[in-house]
Structure formats: structure tokens, C-alpha cells
Design a protein that fits this description.
CATH superfamily: 2,3-Dihydroxybiphenyl 1,2-Dioxygenase, domain 1
Number of strands: 8
CATH topology: 2,3-Dihydroxybiphenyl 1,2-Dioxygenase, domain 1
Strand order of the largest sheet: 2-3-4-1-5-8-7-6
Number of helices: 4
Radius of gyration: 15 Å
Helix content: 25-40%
Structural class: alpha+beta
Number of domains: 1
Largest sheet: 8 strands, mixed
Strand content: 35-45%
Length: about 140
């Protein structure tokens, strides 16, 4: 069993980069019928996020909040679409320490603030088969 399998509890969300949350609402909410809350600004990543639900499955629509946002660069280079998969963990510091000890390449070596009071950290895509992976710890 790999280190990631022992750390991950379940899929937290799928993140999709969009140029405009307002335009994306037409597809995800109006057409597909997802339920959604309010848009939240995540200052640490300079993005606006709309959390949508298809049943119990969570999809986050992520829009860059400025041209300096790392997501702006992603959007300019690749266009909109799948950005990352996020997995729930119980203890983010422990997860990062265990992954680092196993030699897994990390983008973040310490937790940072995420949407809705979560704490997050990213694992480099080179360590996860080319998929940007986010680890999420829910607030207590």
C-alpha cells in the first residue's frame, strides 16, 4: 500500500478552472442542475471559488481573481478545465510529514488556508501520475 493510500480518507472535491464563474453557472447550475452556495474569495491563492454539489459530490469552480493569480497562468496556458483532485485527510501536518519522509515531491511543505475554513496543501503532479493533488483538512 502506498503512503497516499494510508493518508487519504476520501475524495473531497474536483476543481475546475473557469474564466468566469458567472458563465460556468449556466452549465453547472442552470443546465446540469448542481446546487451551489456563494462565491468565496481565497486570498492566499488569489482565486474566487464556487462550490457546487451534484448529490454528495463536490465540484469547485475556480476563477482567477487577478492576472497575478497562479490560476490565471494555468488558464492562459491550458484554458479552462480540470485543475486538480482534492482528497480529505484527518491530519494535514502528519500527512505532509509522512509524504515528505517517503520522498514524495510536495509543492507545499506546510498547510495554508483554503476555502470554507479548510487547510490545504498541494502534492506535485510528478508524484501523482501527472495529476495536481490537493490534500484538504476540514475545520473542526
Amino acid at each position: 500500500m502506498s503512503e497516499l493510500e494510508r493518508i487519504v480518507k476520501d475524495l473531497h472535491h474536483v476543481a475546475i478552472v473557469v474564466a468566469s464563474i458567472d458563465e460556468a453557472r449556466k452549465t453547472y447550475i442552470d443546465l446540469l442542475g448542481f446546487e451551489a452556495g456563494d462565491v468565496e474569495h481565497v486570498a492566499d491563492q488569489d482565486v474566487d471559488v464556487l462550490v457546487c454539489f451534484a448529490g454528495k459530490q463536490r465540484v469547485e469552480l475556480v476563477q482567477p481573481a487577478s492576472p497575478e493569480s497562479p490560476v490565471s497562468k494555468f488558464l492562459a496556458k491550458r484554458g479552462g478545465g480540470l485543475h486538480h483532485l482534492a482528497y480529505r485527510v484527518d491530519d494535514l501536518e502528519d500527512a505532509l510529514a509522512r509524504l515528505a519522509a517517503a520522498g514524495v515531491r510536495l509543492i507545499d511543505t506546510a498547510p495554508r488556508p483554503g476555502a470554507h475554513g479548510t487547510r490545504i496543501a498541494f502534492v506535485h503532479p510528478s508524484a501523482t501520475g501527472g495529476v495536481l493533488t490537493e490534500l484538504v483538512q476540514e475545520p473542526e
